[in-house]
Design goal:
56% of the residues lie in helices and 0% in strands. The protein is built from three helices and no strands. The longest helix is centred in the last third of the chain and has 30 residues. The mean pLDDT is 86.
Length: 80
C-alpha cells in the first residue's frame, strides 16, 4: 500500500496522530438517529392545546435524547 493510501486509511480510522476530527463515523455511532420515529405532533390552526404542547414536547425530548446519545458516542471517539 502506498504511503498516501496508508495516511488516508489512518485518518479515516482515527489512528493517525494529531486531530481525530477527520475520522470516519461508523453507522453504530449514529444508530440512534436511524431509529427516530416520525414526528407525532400535528399542525394546529389555532392556539395549541395542552395535548398539542405535550405532544410537541415529547417529540423534542426524543430528538434531543437521540442527538445527545450520538454526540456522546462521537465525543468518546475524539478522546480515545
Amino acid at each position: 500500500m502506498q504511503g498516501s493510501q496508508i495516511e488516508k486509511l489512518e485518518v479515516l480510522d482515527g489512528s493517525r496522530s494529531g486531530s481525530r476530527e477527520r475520522a470516519a463515523v461508523r453507522i453504530e455511532d449514529v444508530r440512534e438517529l436511524l431509529q427516530l420515529a416520525q414526528v407525532k405532533t400535528k399542525e394546529v390552526a389555532a392556539a395549541p392545546t395542552q395535548d398539542d404542547f405535550n405532544s410537541l414536547l415529547k417529540d423534542i425530548k426524543e430528538i434531543s435524547s437521540r442527538l445527545n446519545t450520538v454526540a456522546q458516542a462521537l465525543q468518546r471517539k475524539l478522546i480515545r
